[in-house]
Amino acid sequence: MKLDDFNTMDSDCARELLESACSSAKWARRVVAHRPFQAVADLTHCAREQIRALGDGDIRDALAGHPRIGDRSVSGRSADEQARVSAADDQVLSELIALNELYEATFGHVYLVFAHGRSAEELVAVLKRRMSNDTDVEWRNTRLELAKITEFRLRNLFGDERV
Predict the structure, then answer these.
(1) Is there a single domain that holds both residue 37 and residue 91?
(2) Are 70 and 82 in contact (CB under 8 A)?
(3) Does 41 share its domain with 96?
(4) Does some domain include residue 141?
(5) CA distance 81 to 163
(6) pLDDT of residue 163
(7) How far is 43 from 81, CA to CA, in rounded Å?
(8) For the domain that residue 91 is a member of, what is the CATH number?
(9) Distance between CA 52 and CA 98 in Å, rounded?
(10) Same domain assignment for residues 77 and 60
(11) 17: closest CA among 160, 141, 158?
(12) pTM of the full predicted structure?
């Protein structure tokens, strides 16, 4: 998609398109309100700023659009982003599933991490490190990871060469 097309499309269509990158409706509405963007970098900067501005409930809405890391039933964009994870052996995936459950029980939300190009072993190590965080630190990490994922998806959607 071309950024010019996004800038001129109907607001509802633009919002729906953005929600494919981040499922927070409030975030999508706020980003749409900042159109037009001169470059993809301007769009991604706005996207990051709007994620920072979201309340906790809105972040939880955004998290609802993310499956567990290592879930083999995942399809579409999430499956592409987790391609290296899906290739892991059953032992590593079992460990990842168990740690996901522990993480969710500890922090009350899905373990969110930028997974594109990363192996299951690497993401298990990251998850183990993050388990030692307190709730506030981990919530900040979750926001940062959401911003990374969203930026990657937007760059991919708009054909940015840095994807």
Answers:
(1) no
(2) yes
(3) no
(4) no
(5) 12
(6) 44
(7) 21
(8) 1.10.3330.10
(9) 30
(10) no
(11) 158
(12) 0.90
Q: At a CB cut-off of 8 Å and minimum separation 6, what does 16 contact?
A: 28
pLDDT of residue 88: 82
Q: Domain count of the chain?
A: 2
- What is the amino acid identity at position 120? A
Helices (H) and strands (E) in the chain, counts: 10, 0
17 SS3 class: helix
Query: Which residues fall within 8 angstroms of residue 147, CB to CB, at 6 or more apart?
Result: 47, 48, 51, 52
Q: In terms of domains, do 5 and 59 share one?
A: yes
Based on the domain organization, do 72 and 60 belong to the same domain? no
Q: List pLDDT tens digits, range 60-119.
A: 999 988 888 876 655 566 656 766 777 788 899 999 999 999 999 999 999 999 998 898
Q: What is the largest CA-CA distance in the chain?
A: 49
Residue 139 lies in a domain: no
How many angstroms separate the CA atoms of 55 and 79, rounded? 28
Name the amino acid, one letter, at 31: V
One domain for residues 80 and 126: yes
Instruction: List the structure tokens of 146.
Output: 């959401």
Owning domain of residue 80: 67-132
Tokens of 130: 């993050």
